[in-house]
Design a protein that fits this description.
198 residues, alpha/beta, 5-stranded parallel beta sheet, 4-stranded mixed beta sheet, 11 strands
Length: 198
């Protein structure tokens, strides 16, 4: 018997079979009903170096076309916007290395932190959230939650093989105290408030 197996056997013998329920953690959302979640989320995204846009009389296509007018390669994983670099079953993660703009839809967002929950389903290929120079994320205002306590109750964390919070564009200030965007990921993040299609 190996020492590893001996340790595991001893743990199994010492384990109690009684139920040990986890403590109930409150959601801390007493102020949620009186909070303008869209405004709070918008300010949090801006504080983290991102940008938030509403359509304000223009179409989604018009807004995206303005933002991406100088881009050569656009990879969109949303039905509302057509890019020129389609994801196929043969697309490899590294194939996205030259993408200028990635476009995805978030599962939900968090007003408290300006975070976006993005899953493998939202990305299609996970590197779509990291290799493009710029990321555009569509968010339905109805999908904005008050805080992270509510966010961790969502099913995305259990139902997907990959789920992550994106909070602002990538940035680092480790080298000589100079803030550099795009050090480990996208250089810019644009959130577009756009309800889901029915």
């Amino acid at each position: 018997m190996t020492s590893r197996q001996r340790i595991l056997d001893n743990i199994a013998l010492a384990r109690h079979d009684a139920e040990h329920p986890l403590p109930k953690v409150p959601l801390f959302d007493d102020k949620a009903a009186t909070t303008d979640l869209v405004s709070q989320f918008t300010q949090a995204v801006i504080n983290m170096g991102g940008e938030v846009a509403a359509l304000e009389g223009q179409s989604l296509t018009e807004l995206v076309d303005k933002k991406t007018k100088d881009a050569k390669i656009i990879c969109s994983h949303v039905e509302e916007i057509k890019g020129n670099f389609p994801l196929t079953p043969d697309t490899q993660p590294t194939d996205l290395k030259d993408v200028d703009f990635g476009i995805v839809r978030a599962s939900f967002a968090v007003a408290e932190t300006g975070s976006l929950c993005l899953t493998d389903s939202n990305f299609g290929i996970n590197t779509l959230g990291y290799l493009p120079q710029h990321l555009i994320v569509l968010v339905d205002p109805a999908d904005i939650l008050f805080n992270l306590h509510n966010a961790y109750q969502r099913p995305e964390w259990r139902e997907h093989g990959y789920a992550v919070f994106h909070t602002g564009p990538s940035a680092t200030a480790d080298i000589e105290g100079i803030l550099i965007h795009g050090a480990q990921g996208v250089r810019s993040l644009l959130v577009i408030l756009q309800p889901r299609q029915a």
